[in-house]
Design a protein that fits this description.
The complex is a heterodimer of chains A (311) and B (249).
Chain A lengths: L5 H17 L2 H26 L8 H18 L3 H23 L4 H21 L1 H4 L5 E2 L7 H5 L1 H24 L1 H11 L1 H6 L4 H27 L1 E2 L6 H14 L5 H20 L3 H15 L3 H6 L10
Antiparallel strand pairs in A: 1-2
Helix pairs in contact in A: 1-2, 1-8, 2-8, 2-11, 2-12, 2-13, 3-4, 3-5, 3-11, 4-11, 8-9, 8-11, 9-11, 12-13, 13-14
Chain B lengths: L1 E12 L2 E12 L3 E5 L6 H8 L7 E6 L2 E2 L5 H6 L2 E4 L11 H9 L13 H17 L15 H14 L4 E5 L7 H17 L3 E5 L3 H7 L2 E6 L2 E7 H6 L1 H8 L4
Helix pairs in contact in B: 3-4, 3-5, 4-5
Classes of the chains: A mainly alpha (311), B alpha/beta (249).
Bound molecules: adenosine-5'-diphosphate (ADP) and magnesium ion (MG).
The site of adenosine-5'-diphosphate has 10 residues of chain B, from helix 1.
């Protein structure tokens, strides 16, 4: 059984949808949130895993998408799926100038620059009281235009599942597309990619924009889920958190980061109920993973398969 | 018809002049070897021509167009392909995918962000032919980075050939290859040169390879061109023998 088989992954996503209909209410809510984080981690994997651009500022597009969707839902009661897609599109638009600057660098400089942009977002929403509600955020975000079922707990869960399934297919299709393979070539050897006629910066910008689009969608779904947005969405710990999900699950595999999101979210819940110092326990666990399973959960699950770096 | 025209190409690092004032013309279909001792500036010269390195002075024209300031990708899109002295393949991709990327480097397909699977398979079939001709067909699915050193060198040449360039620049293609691999590479290069209109610029330390492939030889010495002409004439040249060829004449 190949864990990266897209049919299997879609079956799992569908199963998570069905699970939401039978679980107790609070468990369904937790699962919905976890699936939104799966989408968020998936979006970061395109950058970190597929393009090997380690972003430490993915809270930026996440928060931006959330605020844009919240604004549209509050101001105009746009139907929620429209607001989510529009938020994704605007985040992608924002990614063009931001990415244009970020992809001129790589490595630590890229991480710092992406972090700087997320911090900038934090500062803007914090200060721009009139529009963003400042430190109070924007409460009471409506799930507009969905009808009674979809706006409810189970319905919203299924909506998230549908977005996650579509996002996964999009990312999976991109990675194997002709352009996605060129991204892989740029990742593997910049000099070779140039000799083939590809401009590494332009190619990186493409994947940057796609990653921001999906992160914006994830953030927008979160705004509708929590019915509330606040500057914390932009906080650097959010960026660190999603990066841990990607590395924990196995960067560059698409499935792995989604598993990483589920695993981290689950463990945080279990551990925080058990002990005050759960952060410490998670930190230790992360260290163990990096040392003993450097290719993450996926690498560990597929240890018996021949090594392949691509999803 | 002149394909490549270099005038006064120079490159200095500080006070050190790696390449000084080199003129070099190459006609379509022409095959020219550049030889010279280590550090003569051969790699530096190729890097300037292929757009990998800024020029301190001089101009490059390709097919009449001034391409002096263009970066490597722009030259590649104009039909310049090259192999590197230090192997530059994509280690985490399979051997066949490395070559497919060469086959479809200039295909508009490369911009498609979805689908394209059927066309990619066509490209892959073409890539398999190149691998087969270099005796690498059995290694096609292996990660390039896990191939033996000699196989990686063969792959490096295969990727450049797969681009079907108008100007092929090969920097010590057989370096690190076994005798058998060298023989195969020379054989394939001869075939490709015979069947296509590609012009070739070649740096090669193995003089047997040079004489087998190149009717014309340019000699670089301390960054300067000291000889340029038919292989036999260059071989007999006094200055060249002094500088480089030693007892070969
Ligand atoms: N990036 C660089 N910085 C400084 N000197 C360099 C650099 N690259 C090459 N050189 C020097 O330029 C000279 C020519 O190098 P190169 O073109 O690689 O020679 P060849 O390929 O003929 O052996 C050498 O003396 C080398 O040390
Ligand atoms: Mg050299």
């Amino acid at each position: 059984m190949n864990l990266s088989d897209p049919r299997l992954v879609l079956a799992f996503i569908a199963a998570a949808g069905a699970l939401g209909l039978v679980l107790p209410a609070h468990a369904t809510t937790l699962l919905t949130e976890a699936l939104i984080l799966c989408l968020f981690a998936l979006s970061l994997d395109l950058l970190v895993g597929h393009a090997r651009l380690t972003s430490f500022g993915h809270a930026g597009p996440w928060g931006f998408g959330a605020y844009v969707a919240a604004g549209m839902l509050l101001a105009w009661q746009v139907p929620l799926p429209v607001a989510v897609l529009a938020a994704g599109a605007l985040t992608a638009l924002l990614a063009i100038p931001v990415g244009w600057l970020c992809v001129r660098t790589g490595g630590v400089a890229f991480a710092m620059l992406s972090l700087a942009f997320a911090q900038l977002g934090y500062a803007v929403v914090f200060k721009w009281n009139a529009v963003t509600g400042g430190s109070d955020g924007l409460p009471g975000v409506p799930r507009a235009g969905l009808g009674e079922f979809l706006a409810g707990r189970e319905g919203y869960h299924l909506l998230v599942v549908a977005f996650l399934g579509a996002a996964y297919l999009l990312a999976w299709g991109f990675v194997r597309s002709p352009l996605g393979r060129v991204v892989a070539a740029v990742r593997e050897n910049e000099q070779r990619a140039e000799a083939l006629g590809h401009d590494p910066r332009r190619i990186r910008l493409v994947v940057f924009v796609l990653s921001y689009f999906l992160a914006g969608v994830a953030g927008a779904l979160y705004a509708g889920f929590a019915r509330y947005v606040s500057p914390e969405l932009f906080f650097w710990t959010v960026s660190g958190h999603v990066l841990v999900m990607v590395v924990l699950g196995g960067a560059g595999t698409l499935v792995g980061p989604m598993l990483g999101a589920l695993a981290l979210f689950y463990m945080e819940h279990q551990l925080s109920a058990l002990t005050e110092s759960w952060g410490l326990a998670l930190g230790l666990l992360f260290i163990l993973v990096v040392i003993f399973a450097p290719r993450g959960l996926m690498g560990w699950l597929q240890a018996w398969r021949p090594r392949r770096r691509d999803a | 018809m002149t394909l490549l025209q270099c005038r006064g190409l120079s490159r200095a690092w500080g006070a050190f002049r790696a390449v000084s004032d080199v003129d070099l013309d190459l006609a379509e279909r022409e095959i020219c070897a550049v030889i010279g001792p280590n550090g003569a500036g051969k790699t530096t010269l190729f890097a300037m021509i292929a757009g990998n390195l800024r020029k301190s002075a001089g101009t490059v024209r390709l097919d009449g167009e001034d391409v002096t300031g263009l970066p490597a990708p722009a030259l590649a899109r104009r039909g310049v392909a090259r192999s590197f002295q230090i192997t530059a393949i994509c280690p985490g991709l399979s051997a066949v995918e490395n070559v497919r990327l060469g086959v479809q480097a200039r295909d508009p397909l490369r911009w498609r962000p979805f689908g394209g699977a059927a066309r990619m398979r066509t490209g892959e079939a073409r890539a398999m032919e190149w691998l087969d001709r270099l005796g690498l067909a059995g290694r096609a699915k292996e990660l390039a980075g896990e191939l033996a050193h000699g196989d990686q060198r063969l792959l490096e040449v295969a990727v450049a050939l797969a681009q079907e360039p108008r100007l092929l620049i090969l920097d010590e293609p057989t370096q690190g290859m076994s005798l058998e691999e060298t023989r195969r590479t020379v054989e394939l290069l001869r075939q490709v040169m015979a069947e296509s209109a590609t012009a070739v610029l070649l740096v090669e330390h193995d003089l047997e390879v040079v004489f087998a492939l190149a009717p014309r030889i340019v000699v670089l010495h301390r960054g300067r061109k000291i000889a340029d002409g038919p292989a036999e004439a260059v071989r007999a040249d006094e200055a060249v023998q002094q500088a480089y060829l030693g007892g070969l004449g």
